[in-house]
Amino acid sequence: MKKSIIAAAWFACSFSFLAADAALADDSFILATGRRDPRIYAIDLKAALSPQNNNTPNAIVSRSKVLPDRLDGTLLGDPANIVLSEDRRTAYVVNHHGAVDNAEFLQHGGRGSVSVMNVGRMLEAEHDNTDAAVERSYDSGYFGAVGLLVLPDVLLVSHSENWLTEDGSNRISLIDRKTGARRGQLEMALGHPGHSCPDFPVPFVSPTPPPVVPFATPDPQFGCWPNPEFLALGRGADGKTYLFSGNAGTEDVSVMDLQQALNGVRVVEIAPRIPVQSGPFGIKASPNGRFIAVTARESGRIDFEGNTISIIDVERARRGLRGAEAARVRVGTDDPNGAARPFTVAWTPDGRQIIVANYRTNNVSIVDLSLALAHSSRAEVARIALARPADADGQVRPARPKGTAVTSDGRYAVVSGGPRLGPTAPPSGTVWVIDLRSRAVVGTVTGVGNDPYGLTLLEGWSN
User: Fold this and answer.
1) Could you tell me the pTM of the whole model?
2) Are 200 and 170 in contact (CB under 8 A)?
3) I need a labelling partner for 333 at 20 to 30 A (CA). Which of 69, 213, 231, 297 fits?
């Protein structure tokens, strides 16, 4: 079967599943990354909705290490993203800096890795706090791994950093799902209008040295490297699937030809990049693939955090037409100059609304797509405040939401968050369950990792 047919079939299958209007099954779980606590937390969704478990860790059924311990017993890894296989029996977990001890590695630019984990074992209490679910681990192909897409034969992994720096990547790796081998690597053009870069061949030809890169943000030299973060797949009117990346370094969105990438072409950007308010992080396609929602998280050049999401029209974007940014909506704050730092987005299964986690303002926005496309000032139709119970030391710390997901029936949004309390702090993260009908928090799970990032939903599980 040709790769184009496989990709198209995968796209249709994936989005039809997301759009399914099925009732929420009892055996449904949240799988949340612990990030600085290198474990995946399996949370029983039904238990999380039970009032007696509110503001407790009681709904957690198991915690799975993402890598074997170091020989001295130190936990390794920093899981930032998690995506399920098509049959939902395998979880692919991106460790942003690979097999690191978070108390020792306080630097950006570690070599990323991917942990392949058995979902059934992740849900079994007998395997709690063990690495029994880890089937294998392999190199992600570059540094600062974060974005992840699962295709039939390969994983697409984006890299937002270079060796020991927060800047300096233009790479997206294609990793073989069976062997873990790097099958290919996409290279993105450097620079953007108004920001020139040193001469650097794309595709890269060894032994040409890369241009000098700054060490960490903010730095006025940012803007040479795109530093792709999360990834999304959109659907053109021509029936083809296109790869989109949110570029933190150049503060824009790239459009790439997925089929060319799967055929081994290294440079596959096909249209001008689409500028957004600030450096993006979260990016997600609508269920029908026609629109891409992307957050404006923060700038790498200056001390600035965004307060908008952009909605990209896939057809206009892939054709390079004006108006590819079909809408820009302020979220999380009424202040045009206020910092919200929107982190990630998730769509409702009907494609009508977008859920946004606003890290700085400690709330979640609901954006109406039709109002946004009509450029209505009321496109943010709801704003839900998030709160945390007091920590063990008695302090009530801010919510700091990051990850988002929506159940397949459109009833609940699930959000992860919590401030980082230090690499050796006890589990301090939080997962909130929001009823999208009442637009209220109806369950809060505590003790979920340390600075948790991505999460996913496993619904109707049957072992």
Assistant:
1) 0.94
2) no
3) 231
